[in-house]
Amino acid sequence: MADMDNKHQVHSEVGRLKTVIMHRPGHELKRLTPRNNDSLLFDGIPWVDRAQAEHDDFANALRRYEVEVLYVQDLLRDTLDISSARDQAVDTVLADRRLGDSLRANVQAYLSDLDTDALASTLVGGLAHEELRGGSGLVYSMMQPHDFIIDPLPNLLFTRDSSLWIGDQVAITSLAMPARSRETTLTELIYTHHPRFSGTKKLYDPSLEHLEGGDVLLLAPGVIAVGVGERTTPAGAERLAQRIFDADLAHTLLAVPITQERATMHLDTVCTMVDVDAMVMYPNIVDHLMAYTITCKEGVNPTSAPRPFLTAAAEAMEIETLRLIDTGLDPVTAEREQWDDGNNTLAIAPRLCAAYERNIETNRRLSDAGIEVIELSGSELGSGRGGPRCMSCPVLRDPC
User: For this structure, is 390 an active site residue?
Assistant: First the structure.
């Protein structure tokens, strides 16, 4: 297994959290309108100032537990100070086939004149037609004033999706939706060039089969569950299994088919770990959630027909049973609180998690089960349909 002295490593969902990557919402959210929010894959149109305040409260809550918070914008700015990284970032934008040669030349000249701070802001916040003065060519002429030449990245808020750590290696994911592909481009840029991550081994990269971080749960050291559906494909789960087995990072992977509805986009929208043997789960799917077990001994071939997820998970984790804490109080409350990310908790340590305050019944059940809940305001952050786990990418946890 991985070297436990490495400065970045994650072996479980619940080990004491030490360092996390987050993205403070910014100008990219102010770009959202009723006209474009669907194409930009953001469910709501948040009040940005309030969303920033809520995010700041989240980050400060983590700091009170001595968690180091790294911000994407800061990491990106540092990275772009490196000339090769800056060139790579600009080249990626210019590779967009929608631009055409004339507009591409205009964009290249515009980006070349930006200082590091402005370039980082543009890569995240986007560039509208009206902001590029003196554009030329047919593409530019046929655009509307508020069309985007460089799309903003509102979903960068959900840092869990574009990367995750397994052991001492980082998996830079392959996001299924084209509108989000530049998120992994920026993430890969940071992990490749930022001095903080020098020498980091990459377990996965965006050129591979679709795999999203919200679908990957580190149930226990050596045991990984992967939700499989529209966002993470069976091929992505198979590729990850092979890579973690080759790197000796896990002995078992559970491939978990999930229904692809807006409310159940990723596995972590229906279940998350809150203790070494406890999980909060949307009760309406408990009896239907199955898992294919794949082990390092058998390679990528399932060892048997699919079995109930909780049974397969407990066996792989070598515990008698996985304690289950239901979302909500009844089927209707459960459905509402699942929609409001009641399942999407972030464990800060065993029996200590962060969750949205609005999910009253779920938080009460967690408390009754001996789980301390740090309640967060999420009236605006939640408009993007993502909870504390979605908005955080742990890069260092203590072993359980």
Answer: yes
* Residues 37-67 pLDDT 10s: 766 666 777 788 898 999 999 999 999 999 9
Residues 243, 246, 224, 236, Cα dihedral to 10°: 20
pLDDT per position as a tens digit, 10-24: 999 999 999 999 999
pTM reported for the whole predicted model:
0.92
In the chain, at which residue ranges do the beta strands (DSSP E only) sit? 17-22, 68-71, 127-128, 148-150, 163-166, 169-172, 201-204, 216-220, 223-228, 252-257, 271-275, 278-281, 290-295, 307-308, 323-326, 346-349, 352-356, 372-376, 393-397
Calculate the average pLDDT of the chain.
90
Q: How far apart are CA 290 and CA 306, in angstroms?
A: 6
Question: How does strand 278-281 pair with strand 290-295?
Answer: unpaired
The pLDDT tens digits for 306-348 are 999 999 999 999 999 999 998 876 677 778 767 667 789 999 9
Tell me the pLDDT tens digit for each residue of 86-107: 999 999 999 999 999 999 999 9
Question: How many whole angstroms separate alpha carbon 165 and alpha carbon 221?
Answer: 12
Q: CB of 332 within 8 A of CB of 353?
A: no
CB atoms within 10 A of CB 243: 18
Q: Is 137 left (phi over 0), alpha (psi -120 to 50) or beta?
A: left
Two tokens, residue 198: 């020098």
Q: With bands split at pLDDT 50, 70 and 90, how would you rate the model's confidence at 183?
A: very high
Catalytic residue among 296, 353, 390, 393: 390
Q: Which helix (H) or strand (E) covers residue 400, if one does? A: none
Determine the residue type at 134. G
**Mean pLDDT, to the nearest integer, of 144-153?**
90
Taking the C-alpha atoms of residue 115 and residue 194, their distance in angstroms, rounded to an integer, is 18
> Are 251 and 200 within 8 A, CB to CB?
no
Residue with tokens 């959900």: 158
- Region of 15 (left: φ > 0; alpha: ψ -120 to 50; beta: rest) is beta
Residue whose C-alpha is closest to residue 357's, from 61, 49, 21 = 61
Tokens 């750590």 belong to which residue?
165
- Residues 111 and 109: their CA atoms lie apart, in Å, by 6
